[in-house]
Design goal:
The chain has 449 residues and is an alpha/beta fold. It is built from 12 helices and 27 strands. A 4-stranded mixed beta sheet has the order 5-9-6-12. A 4-stranded parallel beta sheet has the order 13-17-20-23, covered by helices on one side. The protein has a 4-stranded parallel beta sheet with strand order 16-18-21-26. Strand 2 and strand 3 form a beta hairpin. The radius of gyration is 25 Å and the shape is globular.
């Protein structure tokens, strides 16, 4: 079976106060209130059910832990895997540039004053600043003057593990992670909890149990937020409030828009001419809706695939109002001028070459909806998509087709009025950055800013 489900359990006893008085279930005075023990339990579960060891025995070399709220990470996890392979890392954390004191854990290298032992590990944001002040950094966590960001990148809990040393460590430790308590207090004296708390543990604490040479083989891969971090976890109204404060809203509309944006960024980085739509607002959330670019994994699994799929990037033009969906390992797009909607599907074993194709049609439009819309998912996003006109290309199994010098009928009345061109940035995301060339030993194996 390719899917294994492990269950965490009912939780651990909840605590009422600083004296660790156990809380009772409000529905029954004879039952202890339980709360989740934290996602660090994943390690003990993979040990108990022998999942990690079975994977290793099957010849699997790597495993990835990801947060299910952050689908954007899949664009760049292959890059992190490449860094792990190149640097022989036991554990590699995907990270993003972080502002000082931002409410996200910072990755730092900690040194034991007595033994000299070093560990690269996540430090929670509420502990990082006081830790720095207590260890010779009187200003604490501050932004670097040159970059404008904290020297300690933000951990987004997308983790890559080398499976054999990971499984071996589980055998030694049984996957038990360090525990901590993080109560929220009602009073300034910190004596009364707002609500019962509990002991918990985190999966990113794994470096604390590594020993010897393995402890040195921990690193991170820092990549720009817009390519790897767009969580979808907030209610729309909460997202509106966050966006008003200048914080990412973390809602359905922003998560979808950021997926499209990541593909546009990578296309521009290789030289494609991709316009940018003007921001639009849906249920109070401002997003850049397009062009909407969707590449299925069998067409492009990682940024390195883009150069193969688009061998002549300067001949690719996509207007701001367009929608492009491509599926199939056999597709190559040599030249395309798109102003509308185009869907390309290529079955397994088929080959399709797009060359000199010009598409202009009414495309897809977004229709705003209210919170009361009967479809909860559509209401949560704030709009529905209406497909008014689409160019469809289907290549069946066994076919080898070339689509050349084709042009769909133009409809001037639907032509976009605003097509502000975005100059392509010729950045090679598959090559080391300038900082890596200058310092091949830096822990951040891949920096894309």
């Amino acid at each position: 079976s390719q899917i294994t489900i492990v269950q965490q359990g009912e939780g651990v006893p909840a605590l009422l106060d600083n004296d660790a008085k156990i809380a009772l279930d409000p529905k029954s005075q004879y039952k202890i209130m339980a709360k989740p023990h934290g996602h660090g339990d994943i390690h003990s579960l993979l040990y108990t059910h022998k999942v990690a060891q079975n994977w290793a025995d099957q010849g699997i070399d790597w495993c990835v832990f990801f947060q299910d709220t952050n689908g954007l990470a899949f664009h760049t996890l292959p890059l992190a895997l490449g860094v792990s392979k190149k640097m022989d890392l036991v554990m590699n954390s995907l990270a993003v540039p972080r502002k000082a004191k931002q409410a996200i854990g910072g990755i730092a290298k900690l040194t034991n004053e007595n033994s000299g032992e070093e560990r690269t590990i996540n430090v929670e944001y509420n502990q990082l600043d006081p830790l720095l002040r207590a260890t010779g950094y009187p200003d604490g966590d501050v932004n670097d003057e040159k970059t404008g960001y904290s020297p300690f990148p933000g951990n987004i809990n997308q983790l890559v593990f080398q499976l054999k040393p990971y499984a071996a460590t589980l055998e030694r430790t049984k996957g038990v992670m360090p525990e901590f308590v993080n109560p929220k207090y009602k009073d300034a004296e910190k004596t009364i909890f707002k609500k019962p708390t509990r002991l918990e543990c985190m999966m990113q604490e794994f470096p604390t149990v590594l020993e010897g040479d393995m402890a040195k083989r921990v690193g991170f891969t820092s990549i720009a937020n817009e390519l790897c971090f767009s969580p979808v976890k907030n209610a729309t109204d909460d997202g509106v409030a966050l966006q008003a404060k200048g914080t990412h809203p973390g809602v359905a509309a922003s998560g979808e828009a950021d997926q499209y944006a990541a593909s546009r960024i990578i296309l521009r980085s290789i030289g494609c001419q991709v316009e940018e739509a003007e921001p639009e607002t849906y249920r109070g959330i401002s997003v850049v809706p397009g062009p909407a670019v969707v590449f299925k994994p069998d067409f492009c699994a990682c940024p390195g695939d883009y150069k193969v799929r688009f061998p002549n990037p300067s001949k690719i033009k996509i207007s701001a109002r367009s929608t492009l969906v491509v599926q199939g390992a056999g597709v190559t797009i040599e030249s395309l001028d798109l102003d509308g909607a185009l869907i390309i599907e290529c079955e397994e074993g088929a080959t399709g070459v797009i060359k000199g194709l010009k598409v202009q049609n009414e495309g897809f439009v977004r229709i705003p909806v209210e919170a009361s819309d009967s479809n909860e998912i559509i209401a949560m996003r704030g709009y529905r998509v209406e497909a008014r006109e689409t160019k469809n290309i289907m290549v069946k199994k066994g076919e080898k087709l070339s689509f050349e010098n084709l042009e769909s009928p133009a409809k001037s009345e639907n032509k976009s009025k605003s097509r502000s061109a975005v100059e392509p940035e010729h950045l090679d995301l598959t090559e080391p950055g300038s900082s890596e060339k200058a310092d091949g030993k830096q822990e951040c194996g891949c920096v894309i800013l």
